[in-house]
Amino acid sequence: AICRHDCKYGECTGPNKCKCFPGFTGKTCNQDLNECGLKPRPCEHRCMNTHGSYKCYCLNGYMLMPNGTCASSRTCAMVNCQYGCEEVKGEVQCLCPSGGLQLGLNGKTCIDIDECSTGKAMCSYNRRCINTFGSYYCKCQLGYELKYVSGHYDCVDANECVTNTHRCNPHAECLNTEGSFKCKCKQGYRGSGFSCS
């Protein structure tokens, strides 16, 4: 099975046929599936799509139960939480639907934690961190591309000379380097490689 464009979040099961991992869609499994738009809806009240998944939360005045349903709560209604609440030992606490969100100073609304700038993100050396509302994801560093290599996905050097994504002068040779490329003017020409005369 060979997939010419790779299956970004999935497996190649036949000639240019991708079987996507749960939470992803598209011909090359490169798009996040918005589970919140599915019928029937996965959440009783509100749904927040995340990268490769989703989170449920309740309207104000309701409490998120362990089975994912929303139960009416008079105490919750009085507290006026943005994303529903839970009762712990008789005390009402507002909830945030994701570990990447934290309660604001008012204790009712949720604000985003930028995992990329706080250093909480766990991205390998060849990936860069992209912050999202309530989460983050790791994207290949510039000059690298995601490929399925020996049973798992990894960021491998993109050969700009082969993919023709370099900016070398027509009178220059393209030389691939780790994460980048170099241009060298051909014999009989002088210059930077980006401009040759």
UniProtKB/TrEMBL annotation:
Transmembrane segments: none annotated. It is found in: Secreted, Extracellular space, Extracellular matrix. Keywords: Calcium, Cell adhesion, Developmental protein, Differentiation, Disulfide bond, EGF-like domain, Extracellular matrix, Repeat, Secreted, Signal. InterPro entries: EGF, EGF-like_Ca-bd_dom, EGF-type_Asp/Asn_hydroxyl_site, EGF_Ca-bd_CS, Growth_fac_rcpt_cys_sf, NELL2-like_EGF, Nephronectin_domain, NOTCH1_EGF-like. The gene is Egfl6_0. Its main location: secreted. Belongs to the nephronectin family. GO terms for molecular function: calcium ion binding. Gene3D superfamilies: Laminin. CDD domains: EGF_CA (cd00054). This is EGFL6 protein. One of its GO terms (biological process) is cell adhesion. PANTHER family: EPIDERMAL GROWTH FACTOR-LIKE PROTEIN 6, PA14 DOMAIN-CONTAINING PROTEIN. It comes from the Eukaryota. Residues 32-71, 112-150, 157-195 form the EGF-like domain.
